[in-house]
Specification:
This is Leucine-rich repeat-containing N-terminal plant-type domain-containing protein. It is a single-pass type I membrane protein. It contains 3 helices and 24 strands. The protein is of the alpha/beta class. The protein folds into 2 domains: 2-321, Ribonuclease Inhibitor (Leucine-rich repeat, LRR (right-handed beta-alpha superhelix)), CATH 3.80.10.10; 322-366.
């Protein structure tokens, strides 16, 4: 029965949990959830949902996870997204969203995982994303080992966790919510304790432009940052050296230029690193700790990068600036040489004429 449904209208001021079977309705393409108060985790990935993000979830302070991956949703992320004040996980991967990444996301202080990859977002990356930090609720989880509202609230409240229904107060080890996220060149599922620690941002495979905000270096707790396959320009911020917990950093397939900041060798937790296919130049940072484990494919596609890993000596490698300077020098030298030639020729010609004139004047019989 559920699998045969193509349209569902639940706009009737409903509360509680979104029915589990909705997420498995493979033929569903239209779902109206407006004027409701659904709570906690909303998983609707892998359906055929079309249209835009309407007001279905507007001002819902109970939603922690919003998973709409792998649908056919269009339009932009609405500005009211900030009203989802408890939102911790936002997964919009593989849709047809466009427009700018809204700065309203920066108002969601509980956000720990953002996946906007494989869409059509454009414009700059909001610098305010650098203000996101480990949420207060997560800190309380790590300190107390419990997840849920404060102890003064009604302990009889029941919440849905994946396919289980449990009391609001339970040890963290019983947390069965599963989040899927791509990092370290692989697709991983996170739940339990690991999910509590996991933080990541994936903006890959969009049309983002301009430079990478240095403010992203303030995300000291982040574990994964993927900005690959965009149209980003400018340099790699040296502030990335402050990403002390970063395990995966992918900046490949952009238009980044300049040198790779040598400060990045201090990232001792880094396991996967790629700046391939950009316009970077100069020497690859000297191998140190984790940086000594990265191979050639982390740097390939940058013709002006040099170093032992690329089997290219830096002393024999010209950077774009060097080539430009040499070309300009050659051009200037060419102009100077031509000018000197004509001056020398003119002076020589005048001297010869004067010599002939003097000789004829002294000896008119010649």
């Amino acid at each position: 029965f559920p699998n045969s449904l193509s349209e569902i209208d639940l706009s009737n001021k409903l509360h509680g949990k979104l029915p589990r079977w909705i997420g498995n309705a493979s033929f569903l393409w239209r779902l109206n959830l407006s004027n409701n108060g659904f709570e906690e985790h909303v998983h609707l990935h892998g359906n055929r949902l079309r249209g835009t993000l309407s007001l279905a979830f507007y001002n819902n302070s109970s939603i922690v996870t919003l998973d709409l991956r792998g649908n056919n949703l269009t339009g932009s992320i609405p500005k009211w997204i900030y009203t989802l004040s408890s939102l911790s996980v936002l997964l919009l991967k593989d849709n047809h969203f466009h427009g700018k990444v809204p700065i309203e996301l920066c108002k969601l202080h509980s956000l720990s995982i953002i996946d906007l990859s494989q869409n059509m977002f454009s414009g700059p990356i909001p610098s305010c994303l650098g203000n996101l930090s480990l949420p207060i609720q997560m800190k309380r989880i790590l300190e107390t080992g419990f997840y849920g509202p404060s102890i003064e609230e009604d302990e009889s409240t029941r919440i849905m966790i994946g396919n289980l229904e449990m009391d609001s107060y339970y040890p963290l080890s019983y947390l069965e919510e599963v989040i899927e996220f791509t990092t370290k060149s692989g697709f991983y599922s996170y739940n339990g304790d690991i999910l509590s620690y996991m933080t990541g941002i994936d903006l890959s495979c969009n049309n983002l432009t301009s430079h990478i905000p240095p403010e992203l270096g303030n995300l000291s707790e982040i574990h994964s940052l993927n900005l690959s396959h965009n149209k980003l320009t400018g340099v790699i911020p040296s502030s990335f050296s402050k990403l002390q917990h970063i395990e995966s950093l992918d900046l490949s397939y952009n238009n980044l230029s300049g040198e790779i900041p040598y400060q990045l060798v201090e990232l001792n937790s880094l396991e996967v690193f790629s700046v391939a296919y950009n316009n970077l130049s100069g020497s690859i940072p000297k191998p140190k700790a984790q940086f000594g484990t990265f191979i050639e494919n982390s740097y390939e596609g940058n013709p002006f990068l040099c170093g032992d890993i690329l089997h290219k000596s830096c002393s024999k490698t010209d950077s774009p600036s060097t080539i430009s300077t040499v070309s300009e020098d050659k051009g200037e030298d060419g102009l100077i040489g031509t000018y000197d030639f004509f001056v020398s020729f003119l002076v020589s010609y005048v001297v010869v004429l004067l010599t002939i004139f003097v000789v004829l004047y002294i000896n008119p019989y010649w």
